[in-house]
Design brief:
This protein is an alpha/beta fold. Helix content is about 45%, strand content about 15%.
């Protein structure tokens, strides 16, 4: 039985999306046990009338909510009765709990997971690794995308090792093609950080380093993992998501501009539906935090039911594949 604790508050659609996603995951996986944290009355209201295995679900009452505008290092001390801190404490103290899902404050989650749950032995800094779809039907991971803004070349090398193991264990990518995000593909390109990181990745035998990557090639399918600092990675993710969403809006606007376009769209309705699903980030869950002692998944603040369900599935995949154990073993062997 795999136990996952779900923080039910802090997101735009909480607690409804969190509870609905948890119930969907429970009904789909008979080997899953879920613990929900947050205001018990509000959670029970969301559960009312739903069919789910009640013997595999527990609620921990935690009425406070951490806001995204609050200072992370302060609220993890002052709001110990919040839904997020209750989930963190459950993850830290219960050896049977494998991982945690939250769509709340990113800063508070990073601070709480790092300070309360702790890092794996040898890990310098944790890193988020979200997954996006590629044009050839695969996926690409971006590591780091929000956890460690100020990086050293050695940290970037660890991101490459941890991200490679994540893609191997959770997605079955045999030898992930690793690229370094840069302003050009030539080896000598980039700022000081990129120039110093490049030879470290090139010399690391445990990864399949393929060189630099320009941001325009993120979804091309040429790479499986993109290594970057959190600032660059976050900009890369959000600009890509934003561009995709704006393209869909423009396409919809143009279709409705002329009757003949509407007719053409009707004939290609299935194709447009497939494209919309392909570009919908909700279908790809959240960002796994690599480097912590237990698996932590940070979902988008606007996550819907489906996104929360996939976040829970990410914890299950990571635990089933012994991801954290494999990362710990790999870091002791890296050059």
């Amino acid at each position: 039985m795999i136990k996952v604790v779900v923080d039910c508050f802090g997101g735009d659609n909480s607690p409804g999306a969190n509870v609905s996603g948890a119930v969907a995951a429970l009904n789909k996986n008979s080997d899953l046990y879920i613990i929900l944290t947050g205001d018990e009355a509000a959670i029970k209201e969301q559960l009312y009338g739903r069919e789910y295995p009640a013997d595999r679900l527990t609620i921990i009452h935690a009425p406070e909510v951490i806001g995204c505008d609050e200072k992370p290092t302060e609220v993890i001390k002052t709001k110990r009765n919040s839904s997020m801190m209750a989930a963190i404490d459950c993850l830290r103290t219960d050896s049977a709990v494998s991982g945690m899902v939250s769509v709340g404050s990113t800063g508070a989650l990073i601070a709480a997971a790092t300070l309360r749950v702790g890092r794996l032995a040898g890990v310098m800094r944790p890193a988020f690794c979200p997954i996006l779809p590629t044009m050839n039907g695969g996926v690409v991971g971006i590591c780091d995308s929000g956890a460690t803004v100020d990086c050293t070349p050695e940290m970037m090398k660890q991101f490459a090792v941890m991200g490679s193991i994540y893609l191997q264990s959770a997605f079955g990518v045999e030898s992930p093609r690793v690229a370094l995000l840069n302003v050009g593909t030539e080896a000598e390109k980039g700022d000081k950080l990129r120039k110093e990181t490049y030879p470290l990745l090139q010399a690391e035998q445990s990864i399949n380093f393929t060189g630099n990557m320009e941001s325009r090639d993120l979804l091309s399918g040429k790479y499986d993992l993109v290594v970057c600092d959190a600032f660059s990675g976050n900009v890369l993710i959000k600009s890509t998501e934003g561009a995709c969403l704006e393209m869909l809006k423009m396409l919809k606007k143009n279709i409705y501009s002329k009757p003949i376009y509407k007719l053409g769209a009707l004939l290609q309705k299935k194709m447009f539906s497939d494209i919309k699903q392909f570009m919908n980030y909700q279908n790809y869950g959240g960002s796994v935090m690599l480097g912590t002692r237990k698996t932590v998944v940070k979902g988008h603040g606007s996550s819907n039911e489906k996104a929360v369900e996939v976040c829970i599935e990410q914890v299950v995949r990571a635990e089933s594949a012994r991801m954290n154990e494999r990362i710990s073993e790999a870091l002791t062997q890296t050059t």
